[in-house]
Amino acid sequence: MNEAGETQELRITPRQALGRLKPYTAGKPIWEVQQEYGLDHVIKLASNENSLGPSPKALQAIQKQLPDLHRYPDERASGLTQALAEHLGLTANQFIVTNGGDELIMLISRAYLELGDEIVVPDPTFSEYEFGAFLMSGTVIKVPLREQFAFSVEDILAAITERTKIVYLCTPNNPTGTYISELEMKKLLDRLPARVLVVIDTAYRHYATEPDYSDGIDYIKMGYPVITLNTFSKIYGLAGIRVGYGAASEGIIRTLLQVKEPFNVNVLAQAAATAALRDDEHVQSSCRMNEQGRQQIYDGLDRLSIPYSESMSNFILAELGEHAEILYFKLLENGVIVRYAKGWGLPRHIRISVGTSEENQRFLEVLEEILELQD
Ligand SMILES: *Cc1c(COP(=O)(O)O)cnc(C)c1O
């Protein structure tokens, strides 16, 4: 401490860009709610995780790797990259494996954004795109979604300037569950200037059941400047081990590899992801559980006359109205964690991840109870 009572440390100034960063608000962990409210039984429907758990094949693969933990991981995750190439019909050089999808967003930002460059994002959407841009001293142009959270190609095109470097399309979009149709996606890609990189975040692609949904892979094959973001955190049930990947042209992947740390994805994550990718049974039962669970929650919300958006994902955005925040805390007190949507500029909404049928049931029951108490 000096005379003014400051520690010396405070005189070391961080980069100005840090002033604009907002901390990420994660879904509350189960243990925290257990401690805070003194509860035993808590369910978490707040982070779009897979309530079925991880792929059993992934767990076996992790076991098999354990004796080799003294070795550094494969820098390029060749085994997984090769498996991805076969899985999606691209070449191995068209993939970059990352420490969760989040790391890919950071790498894209680091590789492409200069001071003052602009990114265009739908609003509301996943907050990490903004985080990556702010970190690189970029500017974020938000394009509000239209009625019922629909994407508008016209609105996105109207937001493009000389400085636009990246357009982010999260489809299905987090937190709205809405998506951009294949036709609209093509329209947008055909009209964007060639110098704009389009990041298509398909973290929830497995859950999209509409036939006109596109996961963007075809556009990579056709040579559009597209990179798709994917994660093993959602349907594959591996959020805790952190692994995701990008798919793009070999040129874009080479650029991203330049800014990647050598050993970004650990040995266990690489093995787990490779096994999970091949576990069709786990993926299919997860999809089934989600479709049934979505319907179960829709039906329950209908009974309670609560409006919601139809979702192509594993979460549902519901409009609870002016008491949404109070209801969110009441749910917590009763051991049900959902996400309050205020951080997305939606103070009347909550986002509920689809869980097992017991979890969905419990959420609906508790919600009904606390709504009755309110009246
Ligand atoms: C969960 C999620 C990701 C990636 O999450 P990771 O756990 O970092 O792989 C990316 N985009 C969206 C929209 C997500 O919801």
UniProtKB/TrEMBL annotation:
Reaction catalysis annotation: L-histidinol phosphate + 2-oxoglutarate = 3-(imidazol-4-yl)-2-oxopropyl phosphate + L-glutamate
CDD domains on file: AAT_like
Keywords: Amino-acid biosynthesis, Aminotransferase, Histidine biosynthesis, Pyridoxal phosphate, Transferase
Stretches that traverse the bilayer: none
KW Cytoplasm (keyword) present: no
Domain Aminotransferase class I/classII large intervals: 41-367
EC numbers: 2.6.1.9
SUPFAM superfamilies per UniProt: PLP-dependent transferases
Claim: NADP is one of the keywords in the record: no
Known cofactor(s): pyridoxal 5'-phosphate
Family, similarity comment: Belongs to the class-II pyridoxal-phosphate-dependent aminotransferase family. Histidinol-phosphate aminotransferase subfamily.
The protein's assembly and partners: Homodimer.
Protein name: Histidinol-phosphate aminotransferase
Species in which this protein is naturally found: Paenibacillus solani
